[in-house]
Amino acid sequence: MFGFSRKATVLAGAMVLGLAAPVSAQDKGQVNVVCVLAEWCDAMRAPFEAATGYRMEFLNLRSNEALVRIRAESSNPTFDAYFAGTGDPHFVAAREGLTEYHDSPLKSELLPDLVSAVDGAYLPIYANPIAFAVNPQVLEQAGAPMPASWRDLANPAYKGLMGMADPNSSGTAYVVIATLVQLFGEEEAFDLLAAMHQNMASYTRSGSGALGPVGQGELGIGVIFMSSIVREIQNGFPIEIVLPEEGTGYEISGVSLVKNGPNPEGGRAFIDYVLSKEAQDLGEPTGNPQPKANMNATLPEGAPEMSKVNIIDYDFVTYGDPDLQSRLIGRWTSEIFPVPR
Amino acid sequence: MHVQKTEAVMAEARITASPWSRLTAAPAWAGLSLLVWAVLPYTREGRRFLPLDYAYHAVAMGPGAHWLLAVAALAVLLLYLAGPALGLAPRRRGDLAFVTAGLGALIPAAGLLYAGVPFGWGAMLGILGMVVAAGAALSDGGRVRGDAFVGASILLMLLFVTLFITVPLVMVMRSAVWIDGTFTLVQFARTFASPLFLFVDNPYTEVAEGARVGMLGGIGAVLGLASGVRVSRRRTGLRRAGAVLLWLLGGAIAGWALGIMIWGRGALPSTLLVALIVAPSATMLGFVLALLGQRTQSRAVRGVLGVASVLPFITPPFVIGFSMIFLFGRRGLVTFDILGIPPAMNPIYGIVGVSFAQILGLAPVAYLIIRGSLNSLNPALEEAATTLGSSRWRVFRDITWPLVRPGIAASLLLASIESISDFGTPLVLGGDRNFLATEVFLALTGRYSQPEAAVYGVVLLSLVGLIFIGSRIMLGVKGFTTVTGKPASGAFLRLPKGLEAGLTALALVWFGLIAALYLAIFYGSFVRIWGINNTLTVQHYIDFWQQGWPTVWTTVKLSFYSAVPAMMIGGLIAYLVTRHRFYGRGYLEFGSLLSFATPGTVMGLAYILAFNDGALLMTGTSAIIVLALVFRNMPVAIRASISGLSQIDRSLEEASATLKAGSGITMVKVLAPLLIYPLLAGLIFAFVSAMTAVSQVIFLVGAGNNLATVLLLSWVEQGRLGRAAAMASVLILGLLALILLLLVVSRRVDARNRKKGKPA
């Protein structure tokens, strides 16, 4: 009677439903987290759910992708909290008003230095210095000495043996540039970067991209955040950590509350949980052996106490500024990257 | 005309019979729309996908454009139910109902878009219902040759193609020039000036690249001039001068472009150079393998070719790349341990590695295309030529080659587009080189710049467009030839013994390489750390089971959800474009071509831009992933169905129509059973491509619906190669099993049909 046969109508209906069927269910009790460190989040899920009664879902994205995602969704956020990854995107997010500061009651348990270094933009969860991942066998075969300082990286003996991330795609590489600029002044830093450029086998896309090749023996030295190196050593790769003697830069990874998220109370509860000793101690077993921000948290095996690492007084506010950041990266891209080697 | 008249008369006859019989398709669907509008919430808030929240019911929302939907639906119902009382001729009434229903869909949709409120169940189903009603009315008005089903399908398909292919791509272009609320070309200027995009005159090198490029342009111009003079011998005067000038210009541009590709750096020249290397090489390899596959007597060689040609379809795109690092990397098994190439001298990261991996991946595709056109060749032609005393070479040159040329051209076209669009390989093997498809991704995720990503997207789209236009003009390609072809009877000329042996050796080397790459993945999944600690372990599979399996299962579900509508929409579009003529037919074909040819990263970006807010808000849901996959993989189903449909005689449908079956019934009861194999193949290929897709969904995955390939990529990046290899092995073996199942089933069906004497 419909002109269409019943089957045709059913077919059309099925087609419409076929488009609509995979509906994502979310109810009020769910906390959505953008999570840069998937395994840590995975481990926190059950205890967090048990402790607070919220349900937790997370999406694993790289640091910068996380920021892009939160920014793209700013008119209509799907996430409540943004966990871990390099500090810069957290800063940028706070500056752009994508996240808001959560004055957590657990702040008193955190290392005051770390809390003040990020200056009310977000809450610190751990500090992570930049270090050299060195494969001694490779250097030995090439007849090159072990590096001890940033300036050593200019040694032509390392030609084709070094790897680092491309600052155009990775926050880690920017921290390296900013560290060198703070240590040596901009001109001298760029001279050193130019000399390092001569030794690079290639620039990688992700921050820890050089780590795999160093572990596999493709490269001798990678300039990388230390925590991933510790993890790779624990995984059984023949790598050693060298902390440059001039001092090194570091990042303070943190957790932010997304502004206007679907479940702000849940987001706050998640942040409070993340800062607790219990949650911080889940970091190491899941491959995140950084010194944690919570003073009561256990220091992971093999991780240096922050007081023993020669850390520069990293100026997060100045070097987190997007204009300075794009100027330095732009300079690197036009003055260093094109130089043949 | 005649058929329609009788239809109209019959419709009128039915209307006079009883009031109920006046409820034909158009008013019925309008009524459904009205019902949906009355019962379901009209809009929603936020990202919860289609909740039943009655705070957003149309009545609760107060006055607004949404009431027009109800008004229009009522009007359409009245037009038909009041029937003869209105004194309208049926065709007039059809036109009137079409306009009413059309406005009843358009105005509420425009209202939603203007207000930027996300659609709810009521708006979505209500508007779709009105579109169907309008389509049915279109056929009542005699504007479409065909019944209500055809009219409604046409409108629905036009709507879907516009909404999910055209609009997102327009959004990419808009986003490139519409920044912070103003029209500007700043982003284009900034990107084109960036060394990441194009960088020719490098002040830091001894070589003056610009001068060299100019010189090559000059050489090109001279060569162009020479060949122009030679070619245009038969023309005179102005026409000759014009032709020579054209050749000169062409030569200069070609030389200049080649110079930029060789000496330039940046995403544009790298991408073009790789495409220029890969497309001819893959096509060449595909061609000789196809020649061998068709003419060899050896079953083993044929079997090997058959297996190898399926592998690229079931392999996630970057897996070959990372297994190449295992074998040919700086510390690779072959390059370092066996050949002893010093790590610093190994060229794998960059143009060489990317080209090599792409050739391996695309040769089988070229093989299938060229094999199809070789198979459609009639062996009798070759036999005749030989009987008349032609040499083997002459037969090849004058008979085989001209007939295969369209296949070669299609393969060149497809391979260059695939190479340009490739995202996974450059990501893993690109090294210092930038590539356009990865730059879209890096601009968005590394440099946080949506406009820059959009500019790269526009550049990629234009390149693909240029290649299409170029291939149409120069090679006369009218689209992709179908991969399937009807084998003709008779025996082909055998290849000369020496050539056959050579080609067989080449095929075996090629297959050995592929086998080694896949074995490396399987082996890598069972050793603790590849190359460092070779103790056998199943730990990676345990890790995969715990951390990867839930994601793989989600992927299987979403891929299946996407494959079914992809097949149905593809089949329907194929039916419409082959069996009916209507306005917008070319647009449907173009739309499906567009979604096929658009690089995946650009499509992903387009979906983020189009569905991230406003009325069409869908990001962060599984639905957006499913939709992206449906429209990405639909063209495969269209191709499969078109080639199937072309083998079915129309008289079957005419017979069905004579027996008063509507076209919907004819499609389901007559065509679908005959098309079961192409449809099944379309379904499986849509499923398989959905399982291995990465570039088009990498921006779309959200909390709780991460996809296997995206997870695999992040494992590769974190250096968890063992676990990644375990997941890749499971995916490859699973999909291979599925394809084999399809083959077995299709053989069974063929055999059964042959027994019954039905056409296959």
UniProtKB/TrEMBL annotation, chain A:
GO CC annotations on file: outer membrane-bounded periplasmic space
Record's keyword terms, sorted: Signal
GO molecular function terms listed in the Swiss-Prot or TrEMBL record: thiamine binding; thiamine pyrophosphate binding
CDD domains: PBP2_Fbp_like_1
Superkingdom: Bacteria
Record's signal peptide: 1-25
Single GO BP term: thiamine transport
Residue spans crossing the bilayer: none
Protein name in UniProt: ABC transporter substrate-binding protein
Lineage: Bacteria, Pseudomonadati, Pseudomonadota, Alphaproteobacteria, Rhodobacterales
